[in-house]
Amino acid sequence: PNSPIAPPGRGSLRRSMMRVSQPSRHDAIGQSCELAESVPQRKSLLSTIVLGQLAIGDWGSFTDIVRNVFEQVLKDDSLASGPLAGNNASYIPELRDAPSDRFAITVCSVDGQLCAVGDSEEHFSVQSTGKSFAYTLAMKQHTLAYNPEHTGPEGAAYVHQYVGQEPSGRAFNDFELTRPDRNGVAHPFNPVTNAGAIVTCSMLDDRNMLPVVPGDARSARIESRLQKYKDFLSDLCGGAEIGDCMDVFESEQGEAYNN
Would you call 87 exposed, middle or buried from its count of C-beta atoms within 10 A (0-12, 13-18, 19+)? Predict the structure, then answer.
């Protein structure tokens, strides 16, 4: 899925009270700080602001720090070329050819205070960062609060019956599993290895009885599972639209010789 780094808030009151913007020195770079609309507020928005009870009290100083860090990194030529610059992942064409000059910093407080600096409107493939969201959604879906018909262990206790929670000390796509548990079953080391993410993704929407067409990436059950995942991401992103990167999917599928 694609995910914008910092979806803008849409409430005019919130924008007028919290938004700070200025022209950028860097091409295609915008800077803004505002109050995100979709983050749940613990109290009335207006009273929280008036009483100075937002999570980050000195918002001006905080955003100055964020901008200063952004500017310092942007000026550091050693990060643009040479040994510190790094390289795009090259195992699939879509990642190899992705623009490597995009840069943004975005911070959102629990009260919805949003600071976005740089290429914050750029869409990108979430890649392995999506594993943490799948893990979180798997825990959420296996609770009585989410599913009144759920039985047995809930949340993390449910998920970790099938996937471990220790560092593997190995490559992210290694085939190695844990030592067998007391039931003689070996598991992926944790939810953020490839093997662990495959397990947690299999838990999403797992009561869905829609038909599956073997080998069909667009079968009804897979579509439903993917949509629930994207809806969850959208909620986390303040209601932003989450799309599909089918070109990246096809590149990954074409090179998926292991996991």
Answer: exposed
